[in-house]
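Journal club prep, notes for RB
We'll compare a predicted complex against what the paper describes. Inputs for the GLP case:
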Amino acid sequence: MEVIVRPAADAAAYLVARMIARELRATPQLVLGLATGRTMESVYCHLVRMYREDRLDFSLCRTFNLDEYVGLPATDRHSYRHYMDHNLFHQVNIDRRNTHLPDGCAPDLAAECRRYEDAIRRVNGIDLQLLGIGRDGHIGFNEPLSALRSRTREKALSPRTLAQNAPLFDNPANMPRRAITMGVGTILESRRCLLLATGAEKADIIAKAVEGPITAMISATALQLHPRCTVIVDEAAAGRLTETEYYRWVFANEPEWEPFRDGTDATPPPCPCD
Ligand code: GLP
């Protein structure tokens, strides 16, 4: 695992967008794992700007989202399908047939979970998985006690997740209590993971996820087992990490990060969505 600390939230999101763009330019048919949540909105915004201004091409790219609420149709504006259409898919030249989310309205949810796993397998797995983190440490909707080898399945949402995401619903009482999510094991099979977290309210859980012991109580700690996982945080979310001096040295000196050390993220270009 590597940790990159950027000065501010937008700089962190911009760096993630640049990393995705670099992979997509190198491999136009990239299989991207995508995440939702407030943190990701500015990543998608930067990608939209890169599509419009820098000809970033999504036409061959395939995407698989981490999760979807049970019972919300794609037309519901609280669904993650709607979120993705609105924040990314409708704004770039991606082929909609190449965009995948679990169907939270499928009549047989267990069969839908198997179908989703098969679909990922058929494209030979996920090249680059984007991840946020919930306040309870979930990745996707892998709530506390998610098995570290779990696969795509239905999961009941924790009280903390309900509290975190309810404000996004017009009527919080209508927020689904269940979701379909890729499993921790599914996520760990992706070839590369990028986890983005910003803001002081994520500082505690980031310190546990990165520097704490691996536990099924905090599914993000399983990323310590991943061979190629990069955690990108702003100063606020890095606030409770203890080894930041080492992380900063690695980013400043390791050849892998050379393309991203040009300082442009200090003042990221404005997003069209701002
Ligand atoms: C939801 C998603 C997670 C995401 C989390 C972070 O719960 N299921 O995949 O990591 O939101 O949300 P935010 O960025 O709003 O803090």
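Talking point for the session: The longest strand covers residues 229-234.
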